[in-house]
Amino acid sequence: MKHKEMVYLTPMPVRIWHWLNAFGILTLCITGLQIRFPEYISVFGAYKAAIRLHNTAGVVVSISYILWLSYYLLVARSLIKLYVPTLEDLKSGIFSQAYFYFLTYFFGRPNPHHSRPDSKFNPMQKAAYLVIMLVLLPLVIVTGVLLMYVSPLRELLLLLGGIKMLVGTHFLLACCFTAFLFVHIYLATLGHTPLAHFKPMWDGWEEESVDDSEPAKTVGS
């Protein structure tokens, strides 16, 4: 028999990081658009002001990323378990989750994945976050640092293809993050209520349907 249970899904350090990172990346996206298209966008006033704010937000996101990585590697020690898809995830989990998102959700069918402290993300989330957090974000940080120090790193930039290659790569990575923000927000509304998946990022607790035959796990790791 199934019943509703409150599960402590998101520890406070993760919640703090999430919002710091979210506002930082949003600031990077908006200031980046102004830097790339100054003739059309002037949200933050002067062009130099947008560059200063962009660089500041980049430093904040970089530091928060280091803290996030350190937390999951050294404190929670759950980076691989939470973010790396298993063989079962790759064989069938991703497809069943995609089937839910694109079809059965609209018929009121239940989500095939039930979040637990030791299994917070469904197979599609694992695959997406693995690419975002362990590939794209490090790349956007590295390319951003190189762009901040063009003069002293001139020789290295030439080895990497020059300033145009670096700017183009950084911009394409930024486009990926901008697209991810829209998808992330939309998918977050697909809970049993539109705000159900937002709540754990405020107080850590999420309401889940659980089977009485399964042992309860209510303590986050």
Question: Any idea of the CATH class?
Answer: Mainly Alpha
Corresponding CATH architecture: Up-down Bundle
Category by helix and strand content: mainly alpha
Stretches where pLDDT is under 50 for at least 5 consecutive residues are 216-221
Helical content class: 55-70%
Q: Identify the CATH homologous superfamily.
A: Transmembrane di-heme cytochromes, Chain C
User: How far is the first residue's CA from the last residue's CA?
Assistant: 27 Å
Query: How much of the sequence is in beta strands?
Result: 5-15%
* CATH topology group: Fumarate Reductase Cytochrome B subunit
Number of helices: 8
Largest sheet: 2 strands, antiparallel
The multimeric state of the shown protein is single chain
CA radius of gyration is 20 Å
Mean pLDDT rating? 88
The strand order across the widest sheet is 1-2
Q: Shape from CA axes?
A: elongated
Order of helices and strands: EHHHHHHHHE
Whole-number total of structural domains: 1
Secondary structure: number of strands: 2
How would you sum up this structure, described in words?
- With 221 residues, the chain is mainly alpha-helical.
- It has one domain (2-210): Transmembrane di-heme cytochromes, Chain C (Fumarate Reductase Cytochrome B subunit), CATH 1.20.950.20.
- The protein is built from eight helices and two strands, in the order E-H-H-H-H-H-H-H-H-E.
- The chain has helices at 12-36, 47-75, 79-83, 87-102, 123-148, 154-159, 163-188, 200-203; strands at residues 2-8, 205-211.
- The chain has a two-stranded antiparallel ribbon.
- Helix 1 (12-36) crosses helix 7 and helix 5 runs antiparallel to helix 7 (163-188).
- The model is unreliable at 216-221 (pLDDT under 50).
